[in-house]
Amino acid sequence: MTSIGKSLPHDSAHGHVTGTAAYIDDLTPLADELFVDFVGAPIAAGHLRSIDATVALGMEGVVAVLTHRDLPGTKRLFGPIFHDEPFLVADEISYIGQPIVVVAATSRKVAHAAVKAIKLECEATTPILTIDDAIRLGSYLGPRRKIERGDLDAAFATAPHQFTGVLESNGQEQFYFESQACIAIPGEDGSVRVHSSTQNPTETQAVVAEALGIGMHQVVCECKRMGGGFGGKETQSAIPAVMAALVAIKTKRSARVIYGKDQDMICTGKRHPYKTKYRAAFDDDGRILAVDVELHSNGGAFADLSTSVMERSMLHMDNAYYLPAVRIVGQACKMNYPPNTAFRGFGGPQGVIVIESILQRIAQQLSKDAVDVRRLNTYRDGDDLANTTPYGQLVKDHMIVETIDQLVATSDYHNRVATINSHNVTSRLTVKGIALSAIKFGISFTSKFLNQGNALVNVYTDGTVQVSTGGTEMGQGLNTKIRQLVADQFGIDTDQVLLMTTSTEKNNNTSPTAASAGTDLNGQAAIVACEQIRGAMTRFASEKLFLGGNDQPPSVDHICFLDGFVFDDRNSAKKIAFSAFCDLARRDRVDLGGRGFYATPGVDFNRETGQGTPFFYFTTGAAIAEVTIDRFTGEMTVDRVDLLMDVGKMINPGIDIGQIIGGFVQGMGWCTNEELVYDSTGKLLSTSPTTYKIPNVTDIPAVFNVATIDNPKHVINVSRSKAVGEPPLMLGICVWLAAKDAIWRLCAGEPVQMPLPATAEANLACIASRLMPCHPPAPLAPGHARERGRG
Ligand code: MTE
Ligand code: HPA
Ligand code: MOS
Hints:
The protein is of the alpha+beta class and 791 residues long. The chain contains 20 helices and 31 strands. Helices cover 29% and strands 24% of the residues. Strands 3-7-1-14-11-12-13-22 form an 8-stranded mixed sheet, with helices on both faces. Strands 9-17-16-15-10 form a 5-stranded mixed sheet, with helices on both faces. Strand 12 (192-196), helix 6 (201-212) and strand 13 (219-223) form a beta-alpha-beta unit.
């Protein structure tokens, strides 16, 4: 009996609820360990003139005060795509909180006190804080990219309808519960071992080696698990690792860096805010004829992953819909905020929301049902023309239309629209809205080289198995799924298989656990390693063990590994326990170890031409949300959500449904109540859970139906599964659309200008501006919020 397809609990579930699952700060300090903290830049832009650490250095317990001058390496800049980011500020200050001085002390308390005692002299310059200013000043990161197809000018010249608009979406904090954290332990031969809360052990290893001027072979990076990553630890776990490693190398003592929550929120990058101009042309039925969009993102001060995130936005501008003539232009802007970075969806949400907004607006303008308009525009499986993306990839073997139809039926959509309309006529207190949105999320890193994984499998003589891959566990259940895949390979119980701590010592040159491809890459690599071992095992079994058991010649094709036994399927009476079999195999000098490698076939994308096949396949789905908004406070309640996704044949349905629910709610947070507020100097004001509101348990939809659709056409990928980590986040967009729908129903006419997030204040301002057009909209929150308001 295979465990594949079973909802086994997360392999750390017991540890999570009992508190025995260790995170970085739970690791017992080594003797003489130092606590490390840092002084961050007090201004968003300017120059560092001097550092006065006299008082700090005189404090008892302060062991080291280090600056960029103490970095032993010759390289001064790092970065995953462009090397443009300094490890520590030398002169130019680029964002508030940018690390300048590293302090090591014998206790946390002394380290914090020393940080406070260090005086910086800085000369401020004018920071670039809005996308408009960045565009005006030509302050960019990387080149401007374009994806296009068809004759845009002709389509706009002849279209019966068209409109233009601007859509702004705000950023989002990853809000992992374990802040950035790292412990570095000095070793022999100039080496260092770092325990990092990172999605990207290889990148951490490489950046530490560069900063210290040592070889990658002298750095080992380990990660047992993260208390959440959500993209925020794909690249940004490198800076704390550099600080810890620098102290470890300089002092020859173990060094611990644990960011405080506020500190983490202030100085690390987030989801990219976007400002997008669009133009859409359509016919009387609501069929899209042409779309022309220009996306700009706030990339923050350094390139980090911004060009890659923008690429994914551009590749998701079509979402689930066929756009006959299209031009998508994208440019990341260099601004004075922490470098914005990966966040679940990786630019996808910012692209998807544009086309979903356009479709809703088309429906409103034509007084048509928004679901009908979407259905009319979805990709059509089997029709190669209406199934090809703007970048030339065929969307094969999908069930997008079927998903929408099934969801409309099971959610009783049409009857509920009627009920909502009558509610809105009779209720003086609240207004209701409903909306559907879809997702077609491309699975693969858009940088081809990252689509690889390797795995190490050790089988022991008692029949137990250790598996190590480059994948990292952040709560998403990767380890549990790989355990199931490996147990299945040997026909043994999952209890016999353990996933070992991720370490660059066992798995080298690995990709970050990102792009939702963790199981696809590492799971398949683990299977390849198991196949190697099984190959040796079956040869041994057929040649030496079961010979003579029947009259037939030995054949590897007949050796089975099932239910804890090994046998020849022509004579299953003579079976041997897997554990005894492993012991015999070793005695016969059979290699019981394997290293597997997997590279995703067929993916390639040319970013110069904007054409290619960037994705191995697509994870798809749709969602319908119904909301109620208080007309007098703007407060919104999500009454009901129905989700339907094609996530392939699930390896672990319990984990996948958890990912769908968690992803959706996180997307809903981005769209509704997570609001990053900055002051006019670029300082983040919402720096903790008291001021930054992620969805809480009372925000979860009262009725929340989650289902998956069985797609027999999906036959590729590991065990016919599909990646699930990021796609459901973008279904949260239907809540934002439902809010807009509610306000539209209140007073149809002009399109609804709704900012993102649609907070209670934003909803109220929106209602006020529609019901009292001669009154100015209610004031919004300070800083960024004032810039928004068009969508
Ligand atoms: N789920 C949990 N519980 N915690 C996380 O940090 N990160 C998400 C998603 N689900 C995350 C999560 C992101 S951004 C990605 S890319 C995927 O998990 C990564 O893991 P996978 O590729 O193994 O799905
Ligand atoms: N997704 C997530 N992370 C990434 C990607 C991507 O496409 N490319 C590089 N890092
Ligand atoms: Mo996920 S944003 O690809 O780490």
